[in-house]
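[Q] Does anyone have a clean structure-token version of this?
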Amino acid sequence: MVSQKVPMTLEGAELLRAELKQRRMVERPRIIEQISEARAHGDLSENAEYAAAKEQQSFNEGRIQEIEAKLANAEIVDTSRLRADKVVFGAHVSLLDEDSEEKTAYHIVGVDEANLDIGKISYTSPLARALIGKEVGDSVTVMAPAGKRQYEILSIHF
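[A] Here you go.
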């Protein structure tokens, strides 16, 4: 089965690579040391330190595999090289809520990079899907939990 490539910003890929390096080079040896120390304490069947270290090891190894898979399936997009008059993956978009007159800004990123607290929305989110392909001055309607929201695109930059 061929995996479909998933878009990811260069910044997002670099963050995943840094986490992968941390987990391989720092966390893995630290956990192995904890397991060795716990083994030295004797009976493993009643050794809570050993059980906790093995659980950490399992989580860490699982996360390493998850990151490796995400990077293997990523289509990394260097958004600094993008130039477009329309909203595309990687765009920073400033919006005006036409009902409340409130201005907001979002960066359209990959699924694993999305973090609404810092203005990063996934390209699969309803808002991003409504924005993609639109230009400055266009209005978009998005179904939000609170009902329909109408936004005007104020600017697009990369």
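[Q] Thanks! Anything notable?
[A] The first strand starts at residue 6 and ends at 9.
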